[in-house]
Specification:
- The protein is 53% helix and 0% strand.
- The protein is mainly alpha-helical and 85 residues long.
- It has one domain: Fumarate Reductase Iron-sulfur Protein, Chain B, domain 2 (Orthogonal Bundle).
- The longest helix is centred in the C-terminal third of the chain and has 20 residues.
- The chain is globular.
Length: 85
Protein backbone atom coordinates (compact mmCIF):
# COMPACT_ATOMS: atom_id res chain seq x y z
CA UNK A 1 0.00 0.00 0.00
CA UNK A 2 2.90 2.35 0.66
CA UNK A 3 3.77 1.99 -3.02
CA UNK A 4 0.20 2.79 -4.03
CA UNK A 5 -0.17 5.82 -1.77
CA UNK A 6 3.02 7.80 -1.13
CA UNK A 7 1.17 9.71 1.61
CA UNK A 8 0.44 6.53 3.59
CA UNK A 9 1.89 6.81 7.09
CA UNK A 10 3.12 3.21 6.99
CA UNK A 11 3.01 0.38 9.50
CA UNK A 12 5.86 1.60 11.71
CA UNK A 13 4.28 5.02 12.23
CA UNK A 14 0.87 3.50 12.87
CA UNK A 15 2.37 1.07 15.36
CA UNK A 16 3.96 4.00 17.22
CA UNK A 17 0.63 5.84 17.12
CA UNK A 18 -1.01 2.82 18.76
CA UNK A 19 1.59 2.84 21.53
CA UNK A 20 1.12 6.59 22.08
CA UNK A 21 -2.69 6.37 22.03
CA UNK A 22 -2.65 3.43 24.45
CA UNK A 23 -0.51 5.16 27.06
CA UNK A 24 -2.84 6.38 29.82
CA UNK A 25 -0.30 9.06 30.74
CA UNK A 26 -0.50 10.61 27.28
CA UNK A 27 -2.78 13.63 27.50
CA UNK A 28 -2.68 13.95 23.71
CA UNK A 29 -4.05 10.46 22.97
CA UNK A 30 -7.18 11.92 21.35
CA UNK A 31 -4.99 14.05 19.09
CA UNK A 32 -3.02 10.97 18.06
CA UNK A 33 -6.25 9.22 17.09
CA UNK A 34 -7.30 12.24 15.06
CA UNK A 35 -4.00 12.34 13.17
CA UNK A 36 -4.11 8.71 12.08
CA UNK A 37 -7.83 8.48 11.28
CA UNK A 38 -7.57 9.95 7.81
CA UNK A 39 -7.31 8.86 4.20
CA UNK A 40 -3.54 8.32 4.43
CA UNK A 41 -3.57 6.68 7.85
CA UNK A 42 -5.35 3.73 9.37
CA UNK A 43 -7.89 3.15 6.68
CA UNK A 44 -5.23 2.59 4.00
CA UNK A 45 -4.10 -0.57 5.77
CA UNK A 46 -5.94 -3.58 4.38
CA UNK A 47 -4.82 -6.05 7.07
CA UNK A 48 -2.89 -8.35 4.73
CA UNK A 49 -0.12 -8.98 7.30
CA UNK A 50 2.59 -8.30 4.72
CA UNK A 51 4.28 -5.83 7.06
CA UNK A 52 4.30 -8.48 9.79
CA UNK A 53 5.97 -10.97 7.47
CA UNK A 54 8.82 -8.59 6.61
CA UNK A 55 9.22 -6.71 9.90
CA UNK A 56 12.93 -6.71 10.85
CA UNK A 57 12.02 -6.41 14.55
CA UNK A 58 9.68 -9.41 14.47
CA UNK A 59 6.66 -7.45 15.66
CA UNK A 60 3.19 -7.41 14.17
CA UNK A 61 2.23 -3.89 13.18
CA UNK A 62 -0.98 -5.28 11.69
CA UNK A 63 -2.31 -6.27 15.11
CA UNK A 64 -1.53 -2.82 16.49
CA UNK A 65 -3.22 -1.21 13.48
CA UNK A 66 -6.33 -3.35 13.99
CA UNK A 67 -6.46 -2.34 17.65
CA UNK A 68 -5.95 1.29 16.69
CA UNK A 69 -8.86 1.05 14.24
CA UNK A 70 -11.04 -0.25 17.08
CA UNK A 71 -9.93 2.59 19.35
CA UNK A 72 -10.70 5.20 16.70
CA UNK A 73 -14.12 3.69 16.00
CA UNK A 74 -14.94 3.46 19.72
CA UNK A 75 -13.74 7.02 20.27
CA UNK A 76 -15.91 8.33 17.42
CA UNK A 77 -18.97 6.44 18.67
CA UNK A 78 -18.50 7.76 22.20
CA UNK A 79 -18.22 11.29 20.86
CA UNK A 80 -21.26 10.83 18.62
CA UNK A 81 -23.38 9.59 21.52
CA UNK A 82 -21.64 11.76 24.14
CA UNK A 83 -20.65 8.77 26.25
CA UNK A 84 -18.03 9.22 28.94
CA UNK A 85 -18.17 12.99 29.17
Amino acid sequence: VVGLDPGFAGPAALNRAFVAASDDRNELADDVLGHVANEHGLWRCHDLYECTAVCPKGISPTLAIQRLKRRVTTHKLKRAFRIGR
